Amino acid sequence: MTMADTRERLVRAAADLLVEGGRDALSTRAVSAAAGVQAPTLYRLFGDKDGLLDAVATYGFASYLANKHSLGESDDPVDDLRRGWDLHVEFGLSRPAFYLLMYGEPRVREARQEADAMLRRIVERVAAAGRLRVTVERGAQLVHATGMGVILSLIATPPEQRDLELITAAREHVLQTITTDAPDDTVSDIPSRAVALRAALNENPTDALTPAEHGLLAEWLDRIARRAGRGITRRPTGL
Q1: CA within 20 to 30 Å of 61's CA: 53, 102, 110, 202, which one?
Q2: 131 in helix, strand or coil?
Q3: Total domains in the fold of the chain
């Protein structure tokens, strides 16, 4: 058996123990015994228990991201955001021990980067469609924070006491907060147009502007978008 095979065997054994008994079940002795591997081999491969936990979290993210990729993209980025939310919540509630390890550990950052990038990409598509009323950064943060809050709240609640309608209510509330209906030609839609232009310039930078001018324009567009985030969408007067 190669070291790569041994490593995978240990990670799978740790993943099974995590599902069965939670993080407390992940002692190096228990994982070594479950994998049929000597403890020194575990330390040689992972360094310590923290290294093993990082590997298990990465294993969990691989499963989550495979499901995320399988969703694909539709012509409606807002609906894609909704479907991504549902998948995220379903994963968290069906594999709570994994979710707590993946999102509850401050150290486990690298494994989350691809998941964060996928969420940002969907929000950027919403912006490019002219349907985002806040900046891409703010939109992604609100979706992530709200979804994570819902999942952690439900995980902490006994299954028989969970209000599953909270999932849909929170989802639609955050979508209503950060998105607009299909873009129209009204002047009051200026903030979402600013977000859309900002996203388009990020995707396809123009050589008509110098880097300094591009940065200044981005700052102005972000300022307009942030006004929308404070609920300022009034139609300008005197124009």
Answers
A1: 202
A2: coil
A3: 1
What is the DSSP annotation of 142-164? HHHHHHHHHHHHHHTS-GGG--T
First to last CA, the chain: 75
pLDDT bracket for residue 99 (50, 70, 90): very high
Q: The pTM is what?
A: 0.74
Q: Which CATH number characterizes residue 118's domain?
A: 1.10.357.10
Sign for the pseudo-dihedral over CA of 109, 199, 195, 122:
negative
Banded model confidence at residue 3, pLDDT cuts 50, 70, 90 = confident
**Spatial CA neighbour of 18 closest among 9, 27, 6:** 27
State the greatest distance between any 2 C-alpha atoms of the chain, in Å, as a whole number: 78
3-state secondary structure of 186: coil
Residue 151 lies in a domain: yes
- Domain of 198 in residue numbering reads as 48-229
Rounded CA separation 176/185 (Å): 20
Q: Is residue 170 situated within a structural domain?
A: yes
Average of per-residue pLDDT values in the chain: 83
